[in-house]
Amino acid sequence: MIAQTSTIKTFFGIILSVLFCCFIFSSSINMFFTERLKTSRNENRSLATLPAVPTEIAEIKNYFSSLDNYLNDHFGYRELYIYRYHRELKKQFGQFSLNDIVVHGLNNWLFFNSFNLIRDFLGLIPLTDQDLEDWITETNNKANWLNAQGIHYLYIVAPNKQAIYPQYVMRRALLKKGISRYEQMVHKHNETLPNYMIDLHSLLKTKSKSESRPLYYKYDTHWNKLGAYLSFQELMQPISAWYPDTNFTTSFSFQGTLTHKGGDLARLSLQKTLDETAPQIKKIIRCEPRPIAIPYALSDVIQRPGRNSFIRRCNKQNLRIMVFRDSFFNQIEPFISQNFAEVVYLWKDYDKKNISEIMKYYKPDIVIEEIVERHMFDQFLKKRSPKKDN
User: Fold this and answer.
1) Which of 25, 144, 252, 342 lies 20 to 30 Å from 322 when distance is taken between CA atoms?
2) How far is residue 322's CA from residue 152's CA, in Å, rounded to a whole number?
3) pTM of the prediction?
4) For residue 353, what are the CA distances in angstroms to 27, 155, 284, 386?
């Protein structure tokens, strides 16, 4: 009997040891045998990529630092652990530790708070005068180079939601608000932006006060279809002036509302069931039902789920354009695509190399660079000071 009991204890001891080892090594196994994620749904950011093996001694230090970031971002079951941890913390203790990512504003409005957005709102991370001078010079250089090629250039900044609805960010928000980096740039231009810059901030601030319907989603970082439509109409004004003989379609009809479920901020705040209604555009009959894969040899165009680069064509039109864009252009794309013979949509930062490459095939009539306000100075600041990448 004693021997049998000892055997059972040994058996269960082995089982527990095996289970313990499986648990300990499960994350590593998952990391090595599953596909790498490109973005974190729980943090709403791009994850680190595997760094290239250093070819020089000076690169070794940065290589191991980048490798450490990569391993941290791709640790097995990381997304599950992050989600469960914060879910249980909120459920069991009534706490929410992701307030550094999502701000719960007034009237149930949610605001994104990564990339120092609230600090920027409060005016706590200003650019230096030299930073502004250099940024303006660099942006002017883009316009001048394109104009020298006979190509029109438009630079569009999609406003942060708190820039359009500051009153909902916090109590006494308008008294606490400082000068944002975007506002610094406007002041540096003596309140008059260059003719290649589209001033959506002034437009949407004015419309937000006169429109009974919101222009941004309450539970998402992005503008809704109405905000995108108003931005599209503003974008088309200089284009219509450049090509007065072209018949552009700039009026589209709205009908009823559409329920927007589980916006990105609702997901980040672990409230996936939050939904809201927003104005719905009347269905647009596309010139072509599906986007087209890019047939041109363009450098550094990376296709990711939900972040694809593609072409739209409309044979009824004549002009060709290139668009460097991010997620804010999703809602504008249907309007733009109906008005041009070909639009090359590149989900990436502005790249002069891509323009030079496509000019081997044809010269685009217009280049549009669209970027969300929170990232408009990123590439510039990285070039000036890599260690200050916020």
Assistant:
1) 252
2) 11
3) 0.76
4) 40, 17, 34, 22
